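Weekly modeling sync, notes
Attendees: S.R. (lead), two postdocs, one rotation student

Agenda item 3: backlog of single-chain predictions. S.R. asked that every request posted to the team notebook include the full sequence so nobody has to chase files. The rotation student volunteered to paste the first one in as an example of the format we agreed on. Action items at the bottom.

Example entry:
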Amino acid sequence: MITGTVSTDREAVLKLTMLNSQGQEHEYVTVVDTGYNGTLTLPPREITALGLRWHRHGHALLADGSDAMFGVYTGIVIWDGQPITITVDEMDAQPLVGMSLMYGYELLLPILDGSTFTLKRTLNP
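Predicted structure, as returned to the notebook:
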């Protein structure tokens, strides 16, 4: 099970650990974004610091209607206690956790300042 907290800004905040290219751990404060169907976003400086490997170009239509082009990288995240390889979208903004990373989990999210939310693996993703 994975836990996070709801901030006073009404954001579901989740701490994630990424491994850099040498296997060292780096912790990031991320925001759960159910409107983002990708896996994870990180700012360019963090992608460089982690030494993530280039994968491809990406394209998305943002909530404000604008088009975005971005780099897509591969990296390793510790998810539910296990290292998994994921794609990371490059965005110069707050790191976001998307629906693809949470796929196969149930999100129980009480919307109260300071509350704890949980992501629990489902039996049949």
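Discussion: group reviewed the output briefly. The mean pLDDT is 95.
Action items: rotation student to repeat for the remaining queue; S.R. to check formatting next week.
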